[in-house]
Amino acid sequence: MNADDQLRSDIVEVGRRLWTRGFVASNDGNISVRIGPDRLLMTPASVSKGFMAPEMMVVTDLDGTLVSGAPGRKPSSEALMHLVAYRERPDVGAVVHAHPPLSTGFAVAGIPLDRAVLAEVVTTLGSIPIADYGTPSTPELAAAVAPYVKVHDGLLLANHGALALGKDLFAAYYKMETIEHFARISLVARLLGRERLLSREEVLRLQELRDRYGIASPAEICATPASGAAEADPNCQVIVAPSSPGARLVPDTALRREASSGGVGTDEEIRLTYAELTTLIEEVVDEMTADAKAAR
Ligand SMILES: [Zn+2]
After folding, report:
1. 136 or 229: whose pLDDT is higher?
2. Distance of CA 124 to the CA centre of its chain
3. Where is pLDDT greater, at 244 or 185?
4. Domain locations in the chain?
5. Nearby residues for ligand 1 (ion, Cβ within 5 Å)
6. 128, 177, 208, 267 - which has most CB atoms within 10 Å?
7. 4 Cβ contact partners less than 8 Å away, ≥ 6 residues apart
């Protein structure tokens, strides 16, 4: 089998795995591989990724223009999103896009997978942020993805799905598996009501491991704790991890303490019964009335 035939059947195999694992429904998702300086091999539009054949694939240039393919086959509707990844990242050799239900759930809830929870995820993917919503198959979605692909190999797409980038096809596919597996574990921990996080010191130790073992990553983990996405450095991977010189594992309540700098944080929930709330309001009204009288 020559290299082109091998890649075509690898795409078929990766599509079959995406479908078998429930990462896609109907004709969702798309897969592409860089096969030359200005050539991509990708899945065609409107096919189930679970039932593809090697001859269905199309070849495009880096502008997404069809170069060759079986009669009637067109490039994937999400080609634009793939193109931006290849343009921004010369090291990327393959892109996989799917709608895995757990990661997409996080993307719908607006919760990024950016907490330091699993050492393996920190060393391989770093953090998995959420790109803003953009209408699928339009340049809007490609533009939303562009700022994130520079420093991340995995990201969530708001109210849509997930995107994984790799040096080759299977590297990209395994990253998609890791994203969904991480989402599953994060969901279980949160349902159980407790999520102990790796301390910032431990996360920085993991960054050293990346360096020592030559684990390829588009960017380093940000050295300082992130206090908010708006202030995040766009050139490093933001990972939420509480600082703790002693403990390697820190309960996530430490996060809230850090954020609120003592006392009850403004984001924290308090619960009052209707009677308690009524009493509280009456007390405040009485106090205000008393103040008003004293002022006269
Ligand atoms: Zn999609």
Report:
1. 136
2. 13
3. 185
4. 3-191
5. 161
6. 128
7. 35, 41
